[in-house]
Write a sequence for this structure.
DNA sequence: AAACCGGGGAC
DNA sequence: GTCCCAGGTTT
């Protein structure tokens, strides 16, 4: 249940299911997860996004392997990667503790029930706490989330099938989708970058991504371009850092993330640096797109770089 | 409170 | 293209 709740953070259920069996097969026990190299855990998580979830889950497994499983909400909340939602979900569903969850489904259901356009987290939590059935907290939490996932859905809610229809203020208003109002989101930042492939699609020079963006994953050596900087200048800077010889331009790939639109120019390069097996590394979608450019060249469409 | 963190489904 | 997803952490 713990693994499932982490996988389902900001991830649709259908997608979480794709990873759930694979992850539990790779790491069947908390001890196995705690003992696994971080790179192996990230490989199992590859493509699922929000990779800090995988790193925190492994770190938390170390705590659980040493001290045993937490037995209540506060104990779960203290684990890395476990916030108020996950702690309430595990405490209520697995331990029967009277804790109301507050996720996107609960927020939408309660915003509509009370016709709130901009409910705060504290407001949603307060309403959920009031309504929770303390005798069956797990069932109540699952029921509200299921209602939000199947009936009280964002775009075209199935109000005629809703058991709360008679007491729903949003239904009474005639415009249930007005509640809650869409959240204001910052525009995605446009990013231009250059990357180099030293090697081939099977063996290439890879670097470990540091920081919060894709942190812990492997990737092609890359440099972000400054405003107005040309790809050629970025390539020269990148090759200077690597001690590499720049080669042919292999192509350009684009990739959309929630907060970034990336345009990446990919070049061949030569160096004596050690290559690693690409298939064993956990790569982002962007790096997979960049490596896929090589297939066009090796396929003979344009000759070899 | 707001910014940041992936990738994809549904429209 | 927009909005959202069984959120958490950091600033």
């Amino acid at each position: 249940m713990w693994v499932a709740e982490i996988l389902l953070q900001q991830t649709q259920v259908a997608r979480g299911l794709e990873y759930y069996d694979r992850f539990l097969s790779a790491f069947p026990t908390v001890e196995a997860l705690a003992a696994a190299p971080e790179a192996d855990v990230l490989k199992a998580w590859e493509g699922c996004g929000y990779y800090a979830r995988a790193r925190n889950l492994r770190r938390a497994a170390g705590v659980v392997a040493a001290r045993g499983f937490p037995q209540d909400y506060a104990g779960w909340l203290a684990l890395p990667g476990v916030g108020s939602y996950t702690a309430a979900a595990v405490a209520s569903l697995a331990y029967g503790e009277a804790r109301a969850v507050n996720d996107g489904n609960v927020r939408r259901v309660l915003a509509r029930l009370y016709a709130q356009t901009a409910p705060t987290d504290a407001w949603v939590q307060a309403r959920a706490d009031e309504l929770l059935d303390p005798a069956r907290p797990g069932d109540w939490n699952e029921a509200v989330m299921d209602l939000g996932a199947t009936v009280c859905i964002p775009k075209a809610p199935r109000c005629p099938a809703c058991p709360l229809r008679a007491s729903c203020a949003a239904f009474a208003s005639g415009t249930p989708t007005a509640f809650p109002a869409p959240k204001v989101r910052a525009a995605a930042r446009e990013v231009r970058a250059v990357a180099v492939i030293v090697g081939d699609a099977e063996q290439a020079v890879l670097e470990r991504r540091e920081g919060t963006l894709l942190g812990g994953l492997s990737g092609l050596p890359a440099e972000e371009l400054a405003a107005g900087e040309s790809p050629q200048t970025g390539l020269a800077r990148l090759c200077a850092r690597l001690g590499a010889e720049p080669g042919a331009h292999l192509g350009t790939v684009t990739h959309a993330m929630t907060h970034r639109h990336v345009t990446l120019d990919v070049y061949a390069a030569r160096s004596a640096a050690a290559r690693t097996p690409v298939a064993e590394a956990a790569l982002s979608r962007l790096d997979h797109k960049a490596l896929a450019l090589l297939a066009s060249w090796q396929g003979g469409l344009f000759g070899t770089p």
User: Anything to note?
Assistant: Residues 52-67 of chain A form the longest helix (16 residues). Confidence is low (pLDDT under 50) at residues 299-305 of chain A. Chain A is about 45% helix and 15% strand. The radius of gyration of chain A is 24 Å.
